[in-house]
Amino acid sequence: MNKVYSDTRQVLAGLLKDGMVIMAGGFGLCGIPEALIEAVRLSGVKDLTVISNNAGIDGIGLGRLLESRQIRKMISSYVGENKTFEQQYLGGELELEFNPQGTLAERIRAGGAGIAAFYTKTGVGTIIAEGKEIREFNGEPYVMEEGLVADLALIHAWKGDAEGNLVYRKTARNFNPVMATAGKVVVAEVESLVKNGQIGADHIHTPGIFVSRIVEVADGIKRIEQRTVRKPHVEANH
Amino acid sequence: MAWNREQMAARAARELQDGFYVNLGIGIPTLVANYIPAGIDVRLQSENGMLGMGPFPFEGEEDADLINAGKQTITELPESSYFSSAESFAMIRGGHINLAILGAMQVAENGDLANWMIPGKMIKGMGGAMDLVAGVQRVVVVMEHEAKGASKVLKECTLPLTGKRVTDLLITDLGVFTVARRGEPQLVLIELATGVSIEEIQAKTKASFTLAFQ
Question: Domain for residue A47, yes or no?
Answer without folding.
Answer: yes
